[in-house]
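Q: What would this chain look like folded?
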Amino acid sequence: MNQENFMRLAIEEAKKGDAPYGAVIVKDNQVVATAYNSVKRYSDASAHAEMNAIRSLTAKLKNPSLKGYCIYTTGEPCPMCATACVWSGISEIIYGASIADLISINQAQINISCEEIIAKSFRKMKVTKGILRKECLELFA
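A: My prediction, written as C-alpha cells:
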C-alpha cells in the first residue's frame, strides 16, 4: 500500500466519528491501529483520533513506545496530539489538511503547527503534508 491508500483508510475512519478526523497507525507497511474522533461520544476532550489510535496501540503492545511507527491523520495533529506523537516516539506524521486549512474553513483549531511542537521537543520526526488534502477537506462539507 502507498501513502494515499493509508490516508483513504484514515478518511473512512473520520466518517465514523463525532467530528471528521481519522487516524491510522502503520508499521512495516501494515495497518496496526485505526481510530476516529469520539470527543462527544465519551465526553472526553482528549478523545481525538490520534490520541485514540495511540492509546489503543500502546495498550495492545503493553508498551508506550511507538518508535518506528507512522501515523496518518486527516487533519494536521493539534498541539495535544502532536505532543502525544512526540512522547510516544512516533517516527513520522503524515497528514492531509493543515491547521491553516482547517482554520480557513472555520474549524476550531489552536494555531500551532505540529512542526513547531516537534522543533521545540527532544525528538526528530519526519512530517509529510498534504496527502489527499482535498479529500480530507471535503469531509467538512
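The radius of gyration is 13 Å.
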